[in-house]
What we know:
This protein has 451 residues and is an alpha+beta fold.
Amino acid sequence: MVNENGENGVTKYSNGHHTTSSELKVKRVGEPTLIEPAEETPKGLYLLSNLDQNIAVIVRTIYCFKSEEKGNELAWDVLKEALSKVLVHYYPLAGRLTISPQGKLIVECTNDGTQGAVFVEAEADCRMDEMGDSTKPDPITLGKLVYDIPAAKNILEIPPLVAQVTKFKCGGFALGLCMNHCMFDGIAAMEFVNSWGETARGLSLNISPFLDRTILNSRDPPKVEFKHQEFEEIDDISGSSDLYNEEMQYRSFCFDPNHLDNLKSKAMEDGTTLKKCTTFEALSAFVWRARSKALEMKPDQKTKLLFAVDGRSKFNPPLPKGYFGNGIVLTNAICTAGELVNNHLSYGVEQVQKAIKMVTDDYMRSAIDYFETTRARPSLSSTLLITTWSRLSFHTTDFGWGEPVLSGPVALPEKEVILFLSHGNQRKSINVLLGLPASAMKSFEHQLQQI
């Protein structure tokens, strides 16, 4: 959770054992309603690309708004009306997921009154500042601000877009979104939410969505030219998975600009061949190394780092502005834990740099074709997956009540995932959110103190 007024340092939370100053009680008002596009939109099947197929997971985020001049009386009506209007441009979000004859996810758009984005009105029994510590993901408390479709057995029974607007007694409100990652990546999702806000304020869209995903079709015949180790299943010879049977602890670590500069300096001092180093490269290498050490991986244990690279500018030709879909591709680095832990930090940085450099048009086209021929999903065994939200403009969304006082994710999606979020003054700090078994968390925290 991005806390605009947060302090630097380590903040802690524990999923499943969260206590707040007063337990948040949320009452939903009436039944969920379906919001259809305000105008006629295309009918039929809407294609999802192979890059969309691998990440069909629900992403839950919240945005909290409060204006001194403007109460929340109109929040439900304003957001509902604007959603109906913006869905004219983003009509697939009003459809429903199904399986194509080729065995892939595809969106069915009937435009017959039976579909639409789901909208839920709710009220909280407290002020927004009485929720407790809402500066990081907490599915117990923050989960009450999003609406999960009851009794949904699988991803096909969950609409691509579900919104809940919760009014607080202080005059503020929270927008909680459940959106399917197969519909868009973080960049496209933020463009949609910001477009929704522009519509609510009576403005035309700053960025119109480009809806044609056939530009990322696989080649005929498919041509797999790379190993694509992101899909490799690694044997857990260290028994790290057994550690996860312990009580999980979740932490949020804030790296301020001084910490980040120190990390980069350390990497540059260590390396004999390292000529330059970005913040992402240094931080990713550090957390990969520290986590491997904390999990006490055996020296010959293979460990994999996965992270997404925005391919929009790397495709040839580049993806059009406003591309509505997933323009990201997973890249990877694999080495042994011994190589990672026993070498200097610069070794890990070089692995990250090689992974970034690997992402070219040829690599991404090969990844698209790899899925076409295998239908494989990336493996998370002995893997760290870093998700970077630090460049996403969560803090700029404005529905007419100004920018959110806080915004961000409700929970981490998997135990193997670490999340980077921008934070603090001028968004120069980075919050690192992760979960580890209790014994491993102590080691991880100790390593942070050495920076």
